[in-house]
Specification:
With 516 residues, the chain is α/β, with parallel strands linked by helices. The protein has helices spanning 2-36, 40-51, 59-74, 136-142, 163-169, 172-196, 203-209, 244-255, 308-328, 349-357, 359-362, 389-398, 402-405, 423-428, 443-447, 460-479; strands at 79-101, 105-106, 109-111, 123-129, 150-152, 214-217, 239-242, 261-283, 288-298, 334-341, 365-370, 378-382, 409-411, 433-435, 437-438, 512-513. Helices cover 39% and strands 21% of the residues. A hairpin with a 3-residue loop joins β1 and β2. The longest helix is centred in the first third of the chain and has 35 residues, at 2-36. The protein is elongated, with a radius of gyration of 26 Å. Bound molecules: zinc ion.
Length: 516
């Protein structure tokens, strides 16, 4: 009997060793595949340079979904586009802006997303600034002056040098003075809008209704040469974003009485109402196929550039991790899904729709790993308010190679993330979802939603680091003998309002967007 027991124990220990050895082998294989056979550069090139920006409702967004489905299938991973809604269809055409008076200069700018077109023929017109008015009545009296003119509706920035540059080189007195004057100028600008009786959203419509030829704005992103580029509010005439440098020049020329004129060709096509999708890829689980590990990244972008770091990098991390898993771990215990979401930028719409449409998946989520804040290596992971997240996520992270995990600070149990990216759609539904939060690499000023969010800003070694992290976490989450706990922390009172806090609740997506 004793002998029998010893045999059994030996078997058990050997099996245990076998599991550990197999685990090490798979993790080594993940690292090797990520480092020796990386597809990241090619994926980034095809997505960012060939397909380009991925604005919801634009043909390129659909092209990107088709490309992703084909890519997954070329790796033997079944994938499909899942429609969740409809959006206003619009295709960006060329934007050419030249100053033609008092001298000739080609300007740096572009139409905002969904901007109406100038039509086939370019429009040449004078550029004017907004008046100083004391009340809405005097503004209404002034309004007919906009007829046939381009109207500048953004404050003229006093400096195109970012504050960090001032801090480095200016005298302290001069830096302080600049900031004081800029604060006063911003206060006066807000006062001007109050006096006119409009906001920056409602003013473009009032101007076009009064006969303006177009709207010019400039949304400086507080770095050298960077502007944020969002959507237009005008319905009939184009809205253009101009670089700070060119906007300032036109502004000064208009204020000094030089009556600058520009010639604008802004083309675009309205495409009616088009379907919107998520791309979902699946590596089917073998032992627990009805439980899910989800690799999550939004696929859409704004279209001032090619959306390289928001969220091209998160996208290629999840695609590459899935490719590697399929290669080295083709028969996962649990099902591994990749969700490339549409229309995150307009309010997490794709992931909210997925959560709403697939309760059977969401209630069986083992873990969601989301990445969406740029090209940097992951430096932060929060337990998102799941009381026992440390017990499982902490265990999985222990298996991540030191070269990757050494950069990561964890925060357990943390508190539930309420927005900012798609993990929040899952957290709100009570599913253990975690955001792989990256080192910022000047994300907020230089690439996030800007005209400079392009391939050259990608730091591929950091992205590769994130692929290894994601693939190992997905592997460990899939293999874990235990189902993850969803128990939530008790939330205290809000530090500011003193009100008791509630766990966030799921919100429905916008399923019909951009239509009037
Ligand atoms: Zn994003």
């Amino acid at each position: 009997m004793k002998n029998q027991f010893q045999k059994l124990l030996l078997c058990f220990l050997l099996a245990g060793n076998f599991v550990v050895a197999q685990e090490e082998q798979i993790i080594n294989n993940i690292v090797n595949e990520a480092e020796e056979n990386s597809q990241l550069e090619e994926l980034a090139h095809e997505l960012l340079d060939v397909i380009g920006p991925r604005l919801v409702g634009a043909p390129q967004m659909n092209r990107a979904h088709n490309w992703a489905v084909q890519k997954f299938e070329s790796w033997d991973i079944p994938a499909e586009k899942q429609q969740w809604g409809e959006w206003r269809g619009w295709e960006r055409g060329i934007t050419h802006i030249d100053m033609v008076h008092p001298r000739l200069q080609t300007l740096e700018g572009r139409q905002l997303a969904w901007s109406p077109s100038t039509g086939k023929k370019p429009v040449t017109a004078e550029v004017i600034t907004l008046p100083e008015v004391t009340d809405s009545l005097s503004f209404q009296k002034w309004l007919p002056n906009v007829k046939g003119k381009f109207v500048m509706i953004s404050m003229n920035q006093p400096t195109g040098r970012p504050d960090y540059n001032w801090e480095e080189f200016a005298t302290e007195a001069s830096f302080e003075k600049m900031k004081r004057e800029r604060d006063a100028q911003e206060a006066a600008w807000r006062e001007k809008f109050r006096n006119m009786g409009y906001t920056s959203r409602t003013l473009p419509v009032a101007l076009e209704n009064a006969g303006a030829a177009g709207i010019i704005s400039s949304y400086w992103s507080q770095g050298f040469g960077v502007n944020k580029v969002f959507g237009a509010y005008s319905k009939k005439v184009p809205t253009l974003d101009l670089s700070l440098e060119d906007y300032g020049m036109l502004y000064r020329l208009a204020e000094s009485g030089n009556k600058p004129q520009i010639r604008v060709e802004a083309q675009s096509r309205k495409l009616g109402t088009v379907p919107t999708f998520n791309t979902i890829a699946e590596i089917k689980g073998t032992e627990k196929p009805e439980e899910y590990v989800i690799l999550s990244a939004h696929f859409d972008s704004w279209d001032g550039a090619t959306g390289a770091t928001d969220n091209g990098t998160g996208t290629i991390v999840m695609m590459e991790a899935a490719r590697i898993l399929k290669e080295v771990y083709p028969n996962p215990k649990r099902t591994i899904l990749v969700g490339l979401w549409g229309s995150e930028e307009q309010g997490l719409n794709g992931s909210r729709a997925f959560v709403e449409d697939h309760p059977e998946i969401v209630s069986n989520v083992q873990a969601v790993f989301n990445q969406d804040n740029g090209t940097g290596r992951v430096v932060n992971i929060s337990g998102n308010g799941f009381l026992h997240a440390y017990d499982y996520l902490g265990d999985w992270l222990e298996k991540v190679p030191d070269t990757v995990s050494q950069h990561i600070e964890t925060n357990f149990p943390g508190s539930p993330g309420r927005g900012g990216s798609d993990y929040a759609s899952f957290v709100a539904a009570g599913a253990p979802a975690f955001n792989l939060s990256a080192l910022n690499w000047s994300y907020w000023n230089y690439t996030w939603h800007t005209n400079r969010d392009t391939y050259d800003k990608i730091v591929f070694d950091d992205v590769r680091n994130n692929v290894i992290l994601t693939a190992v976490l997905a592997y460990m989450a899939s293999e874990d003998p235990e189902r993850t706990s969803r128990e939530q922390i008790k939330l205290g009172n809000h530090p500011r309002t003193g009100e008791p806090q509630e766990w966030p609740t799921p919100r429905s997506p916008t399923r019909k967007g951009g239509l009037d």
